[in-house]
Write a sequence for this structure.
């Protein structure tokens, strides 16, 4: 029975990495929109494997390591190759270096996550999660790329800065909330998080995914703004000195 429970989430992780491989193949063949779709499908399987691990109570260190190996392919290598083929190949060696950032910084982020992992449930991530980085890139491609003309105008100029910012955010210490687990306890503890996710899903559905990039960008910017506000508060709030007993100040034993 234990073996069966462990296999279920690992199966979804395997489907995740298979979708990453298909994304790379379609990028090589020039079908960039299909490649972006497979990366999005990989993100769905990535969510399902964690969900199934919690449902079957089969979370393990093996699952964490397998998930990271899958993520570095689906959300590191696949989007890196995607942005390179989309337009960054036109910038020569500089474009090659920028395109490699999601893969390199994503691998660093996953290694840091694994060594800092304490327990399997958490309320936030340190740094932008690698699937969110990949989904944002794919949403940008869906929004502004066409098979006939590729990227044109300002989106073509914006791709490189977008990739750089997203890659740096992955290895930053900016806190990003995890998706709420829709249980009574979690909803009571984080009601606004659940409401925000529900509103975001409704916006994406009613816009037929045309506002997906904008929703993801808003989520990313919210994390940055919150980190800045918290830093300003820490800087402006006077720190109280710890209370020291009088006998310690005077050096006289009482």
């Amino acid at each position: 029975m234990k073996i069966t429970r462990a296999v279920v989430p690992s199966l979804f992780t395997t489907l995740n990495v298979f979708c990453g491989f298909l994304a790379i193949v379609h990028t090589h063949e020039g079908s960039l929109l299909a490649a972006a779709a497979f990366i999005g499908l990989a993100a769905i399987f990535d969510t399902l494997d964690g969900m199934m691990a919690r449902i079957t109570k089969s979370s393990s260190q093996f699952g964490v390591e397998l998930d990271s190996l899958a993520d570095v392919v689906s959300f590191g290598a696949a989007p890196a190759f995607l942005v390179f083929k989309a337009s960054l190949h036109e910038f020569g060696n500089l474009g090659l270096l920028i395109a490699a950032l999601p893969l390199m910084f994503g691998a660093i982020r996953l290694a840091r996550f694994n060594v800092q992992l304490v327990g399997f449930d958490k309320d936030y991530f340190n740094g932008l999660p690698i699937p969110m980085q990949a989904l944002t890139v794919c949403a940008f491609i869906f929004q502004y790329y066409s098979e006939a003309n590729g990227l044109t105008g300002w989106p073509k100029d914006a791709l490189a800065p977008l990739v750089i910012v997203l890659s740096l955010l992955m290895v930053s210490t900016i806190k990003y909330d995890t998706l709420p687990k829709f249980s009574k306890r979690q909803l009571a503890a984080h009601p606004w998080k659940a409401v925000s996710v529900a509103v975001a899903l409704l916006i994406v559905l009613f816009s037929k995914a045309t506002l997906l990039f904008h929703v993801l960008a808003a989520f990313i910017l919210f994390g940055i703004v919150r980190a800045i506000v918290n830093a300003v508060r820490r800087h402006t709030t006077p720190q109280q000195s710890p209370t020291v007993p009088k006998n310690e100040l005077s050096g006289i034993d009482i």
Remarks:
- The first helix runs from residue 2 to 28.
- Residues 2-173 form a domain with the Four Helix Bundle (Hemerythrin (Met), subunit A) fold (CATH 1.20.120.1760).
